[in-house]
Amino acid sequence: MELKILAFVLAGGEGSRLFPLTKERAKPAVPFGGQYRIIDFVLSNLVNSGVYSIYVVVQFRSQSLLQHIAEGWQLGGLLKSEFIIPVPAQMRTEGKDWYRGTADAIHQNINLIEQSAPDLILVFGADHIYRMNIRQMIEFHEQKRAHVTVAAIPTDKKHAKEFGVIETTFGNRIIGFHEKNPNAPTMPTDPTKVYASMGNYVFSTDMLIKLVEDDQKDPNSSHDFGRDILPKAMDSAEMFAFDFMTNVIPGEPPGKLPYWRDVGTLDAFFEANMDIRSISPELNLFNRAWPLRTAGYSEPPSKFAFDEEDRRGQAIDSVVGGGCIISGAMVKNSVIGRRVYIHAGAEVLDSIVFDNVDIGRRVKLRRCIVEKNARIEEDTVIGYNLEEDRKRYHVTDSGIVIVEGPRSSVELTRMTI
């Protein structure tokens, strides 16, 4: 069976709970894992799955995201059917509004659907860290002859109050939606778990158009798929849940469980970064059969300098991006971005350091997130006295210290006259 598939990636998230990391950028543009952005995960999943017609819906503080897509996600332009195109709010509603919800984002771009006439439409979020073979979800959707398929992940019942929960039959037919309800029904096959919606959907085109157009007529709707549209479609649409735990990624060892993390908070973001630097990481960045793609930069190799007893450049249980110089410093249990210079005598422990950071001599960092372009003066100590740190930095309840940096400069061409 040959299907025309169009994907919408919803990348307009404000990410208020990730502040101050989202002070200058949308949540999907937040750096992750030393050289990636959060949006790279969904785009890699789509491209690796054979989906090449993609619109990226943007809204809040989108400049960093637009620049990243321009630098890293151009498919070449040889085939008109292969594209990744950012789409801002089109102001197509009567009130000429910005996107008012996930469903409104699709409705405002309904002309893109009408122009391409796809058989199926994928609507995926851009703010989770995960690997997914989306082809298997599409195959499941077709096998069930579904109008709507929702990606679902089994989650401990105690977390039901944190997610939109899907109620299903034994055959995974959806019979109810429960938004952040601690008493939501459990899975038919496991009374200790609930099906949490991942916010990723496959729609038949005709049904999606009908649902979003009907939703526009409801003055009380928040125009959200999970909260409004899908619950109201229970009687008119055939809906099924795709169990994410059945998803198989090419190149992964047999029996390895799929990885998915919601990085909606600073603590969750920190822990997801720590996952990739562990000895046997749950998220495998070294699977060549399912690469995690991103913008390519011409960075030199990273360099570790000096091998003296009190001045040894080393990184232990850590991930280090390109172009770094670790000069007589210790890095341990950390994730280091690109072009980071760590000077002699410094110690970076259990921390995340974004790109283009300079860490001075004898600096001590522990459980920190250091923003792009930060310059940390020599002998500075952060993460050891949280009361003092709160006077200068943003500190989470769990004791993670966020060190902000200045905006990146923009190089302009020069003209001689």
From TrEMBL:
One of its GO terms (molecular function) is ATP binding. Pfam families: Hexapep_GlmU, NTP_transferase. Residues 300-403 form the Glucose-1-phosphate adenylyltransferase/Bifunctional protein GlmU-like C-terminal hexapeptide domain. It comes from the Bacteria. Keywords: ATP-binding, Carbohydrate metabolism, Glycogen biosynthesis, Glycogen metabolism, Nucleotide-binding, Nucleotidyltransferase, Transferase. It is an enzyme of class 2 (transferase). It catalyses: alpha-D-glucose 1-phosphate + ATP + H(+) = ADP-alpha-D-glucose + diphosphate. The record marks Q59, W98 as: Could play a key role in the communication between the regulatory and the substrate sites. CDD domains: ADP_Glucose_PP, LbH_G1P_AT_C. SUPFAM superfamilies: Nucleotide-diphospho-sugar transferases (SSF53448), Trimeric LpxA-like enzymes (SSF51161). Its EC number is 2.7.7.27. Alpha-D-glucose 1-phosphate binds at Y99, G164, E179, K180, S197. One of its GO terms (biological process) is glycogen biosynthetic process. Pathway: Glycan biosynthesis; glycogen biosynthesis. Residues 7-277 form the Nucleotidyl transferase domain. Homotetramer. Involved in the biosynthesis of ADP-glucose, a building block required for the elongation reactions to produce glycogen. Catalyzes the reaction between ATP and alpha-D-glucose 1-phosphate (G1P) to produce pyrophosphate and ADP-Glc. Belongs to the bacterial/plant glucose-1-phosphate adenylyltransferase family. PANTHER family: GLUCOSE-1-PHOSPHATE ADENYLYLTRANSFERASE (PTHR43523:SF2), GLUCOSE-1-PHOSPHATE ADENYLYLTRANSFERASE-RELATED (PTHR43523). This is Glucose-1-phosphate adenylyltransferase. The lineage of its organism: Bacteria, Pseudomonadati, Pseudomonadota, Alphaproteobacteria, Rhodospirillales.
